[in-house]
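Problem 12. The chain below contains 233 residues. Write out its predicted structure in token notation.
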Amino acid sequence: MGKKLQHNPYSTHLKKQQDDLVLQYLPAVRAMAYRLKERLPSSVDVNDLISIGTEEMIKLSRRYDKTQNDSFWGFGRQRVYGSMLDFLRSLDVMSRGDRRLIKAVNKEIEKYLNEFEEEPSSEYLSEVLQESIEKIEEARNGVKVVSVLPISEQMTLFGQEDTVSQVERDELIEIIKNILSKFSQRDGLIIQLYYFEELSLKEISAILDISESRISQIHKKLLKKIREELSHG
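Solution.
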């Protein structure tokens, strides 16, 4: 007969505490996923984001020490968000050889926005770039996915390869701050709301009574200014 495993009350209590933490903050993970989904194409399933975030939170609950950090969500929020971004990086639209088309589409959208203050149709882009509408739609989805990643990654994807690897993260932050100081107060606020408050274009549009196309244009203007700053640096 094998030995009966002894029940460990402390281990059971700890496991319950960890599970309770996950259940307590599950609504926060769901809210984060839905907020991120607002900024993404329809092809991304919000349930995938929730699932990825929940898995990360379970792992974090096993490592959490409340004597070191009295707020579990404060301890885990960025890591949960980071796990969702990791999932987006893994999508086919990022890993296939479509980056060339994504860059070309982004360039044409920027050019059209500057001239007409609105984004062009996929039919227009299809004609200009001599690509099928299906390919154009995929690339536009790629642009949306890229636009929620950190600015340094957007620079690499939309600008020259390895441009940002030349500068340290802190130096890039200083460059961004310097560029934003030259923007109008409203334009600077839009960037703050999009990147740091993580609001969607629709939400910013409602708050500031400004079109989503105009917000998109300001975002692209920032990336362009950063590229110029880095190439002159």
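Discussion. The two ends are 74 Å apart (CA to CA). Students who got a different answer should revisit the alignment rule from Section 12.3.
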